[in-house]
Amino acid sequence: MKRIKILSFVLPLxxxxxxxxxxxxxxxxxRMEGMWHLVKIESMTSVAxxxxxxxxxxxxxxxxxxQMEDKTGQHYSYLYRFRIDNDQLTLTSxxxxxxxxxxxxxxAYEATLGLYGIKSLTPVFRIEKxxxxxxxxxxxxxxxxxxxF
Length: 149
Description:
An 8-stranded antiparallel barrel has the order 1-3-4-5-6-8-9-10. The chain is globular. Mean pLDDT is 86; it is low at 9-25. It is built from 1 helix and 10 strands; from the N terminus they run αββββββββββ. By secondary structure, it is mainly β.
């Protein structure tokens, strides 16, 4: 009887302990993990598209963070937290990335975000395609094409 009481206390405690270990991996970047070269931005409201294949604009996914960076260093870089649910990528908590002077949280949309294909401060993208080499994201306003780097 005493053994059953101990087990009824210990087993639920162990279950909680092991389930809390998944907090860091709940938002694994999975197939998005790594660096992606933004090669094209296609407008959904017009027939316009912008070829960026000769530019060095990159999105880098790691764990729960996304870094958007112009490798020429001419434009600001940005950090976002992201979440992947089914075929949806949600970007939240945007920051201007500046390690030397301190990252600055964004409270309003900045035009430089457009360089990265971002049209609103906290966009939600539908993942249209993703494989080992290509990714296509769509937020209703733009379709973004990426090549894996």
